[in-house]
Design a protein that fits this description.
This protein has one helix and 28 strands.
Length: about 400
């Protein structure tokens, strides 16, 4: 009888929590309607005024949009023969102004010739950051696809660069993807030292800088998603160590690789990791750590949504101000279903990550290629910034609260 009472109490608590949730009103502002593709977006303070600006990787331009006017400033144009593909910006020297690294020469079918596929550049700002920046070419592997600045255990900042394929990889088979970390010299125009993080994964797609790992003495660890699963990487005195946290165990069904990966906290403080599956897939999935005594090694899988076409954007954060995180997911449509585009918000309703509520943010105006969360207007609430592929737009969804 006692067990039944506890179950009913928990169910009642979940119902009350769900009833109490009030979804914010999101106000849409179109920042730019003339993008060519809008490969990637990041939020960072570029000019040192204390407000987050929007930094964008478009097909032939790297630009930033100045908060709060959203005036566009071109940083670099036509950096390589082929498309620009990725960008990250972060204040790594503590001066209040972000440093910027970019990737270009997007040619995913060429895995052998580094001259024809991939590039990594550090952008040196002009004294007036609204003027063009000067690129510094760095070493790269073919098919450079994603990059993020990460804080090391020694509180330095280094650049993680992730290709899509391994060198000479064909059809996802062959050499593993060389995930590299770049160490900035005192003069960024000098040679940057690189270190191999990992080369056992094949056909990776995205990465996450994770800051909420329980029991970790590191501020930031790394998650990488690919066809084999999601792996967690930590730096130590002996180099990088890894373990798989998501994938298939004996008897599992459903997992066929992951494209996007992010992490967050459930009501009560429990950890979840969320993915888009498969790569460019239709499913939004959440994972919670395996229960003690279950015999499982990998996370417990729950499908939250499976009606996307080309799921391609993912973020976690507390947009509702309730002390736990929500998921924002975006998808861009594909050739078979070009009208299936959108952005949704998913709210966890229990501490086990089993019950979720979904809310439309933009069901028909954003073919979402990438999105980020940040407080752009200083009101203490997280806003959403997204860029669209076929819709060719850059939008802010201001979180105006209830």
């Amino acid at each position: 009888m006692k067990k039944v009472f506890l179950l009913l109490s928990f169910t009642t608590a979940v119902s009350l929590f769900a009833a109490d949730i009030q979804v914010p009103i999101f106000r849409t502002v179109e920042v730019d309607s003339k993008l060519e593709i809008g490969y990637g977006v990041v939020l960072a303070d570029i000019d040192g005024d204390g407000m987050q600006d929007i930094v964008l990787a478009d097909k032939n331009q790297f630009s930033w949009y100045e908060n709060p006017t959203w005036k566009k400033h071109l940083m670099v144009e036509n950096l390589t023969d082929r498309d620009h593909v990725c960008i990250d910006a972060r204040d790594i020297d503590g001066d209040g102004k972000a440093e910027v690294a970019v990737g270009a020469q997007w040619n995913p079918g060429e895995t052998s010739d580094a001259a024809k596929s991939g590039s990594v550049h550090y952008l040196v700002p002009a004294k007036d950051r609204t003027q063009p920046w000067k690129p510094v070419r760095l070493h790269h592997e073919p098919t450079v696809h994603r990059m993020r600045w990460i804080q090391t255990p020694g509180n330095d900042f280094e650049l993680v660069v992730l290709p899509l394929h391994g060198r000479d990889n064909k059809g996802g088979e062959g050499a593993g993807v060389k995930a590299l970390i770049y160490k900035m010299p005192s003069n960024p125009k000098d040679v940057w030292e690189t270190e191999l993080i990992d080369d056992h994964m094949h056909k990776t797609h995205n990465l996450e800088i994770m800051t909420n790992l329980p029991g970790s003495n590191q501020n930031e660890v790394l998650l990488i998603a690919g066809v084999e699963g999601v792996f967690l990487f930590r730096q130590g005195d002996g180099g990088w160590r890894s373990r798989q946290i998501i994938g298939s165990e004996e008897g599992d069904t459903g997992f066929v690789g992951a494209g996007e990966v992010r992490s967050g906290n459930l009501p009560g403080g429990g950890l979840f990791v969320t993915t888009v599956e498969p790569m460019h897939g239709n499913q939004l999935v959440s994972y919670t750590p395996p229960e003690r005594g279950s015999g499982r090694r990998l996370g417990t899988r729950s499908v939250l949504f499976e009606e996307m076409a080309d799921g391609h954007a993912l973020a976690c954060g507390d947009l509702l101000g309730i002390g736990s995180d929500q998921i924002v997911v975006g998808w861009r449509g594909n050739r078979g279903n070009p009208e299936n585009i959108g952005i949704k918000l998913f709210i966890p309703l229990d501490g086990q990550g089993k019950e979720w509520r979904s809310v439309d943010i933009d069901p028909d105006g954003m073919a979402c290629e990438d999105l980020k969360l940040g407080d752009l207007d200083g009101d203490g609430r997280l806003d959403i910034v997204a860029c669209g592929r076929s819709t060719k737009n850059l939008r802010i969804y201001f979180n105006d609260g209830q």
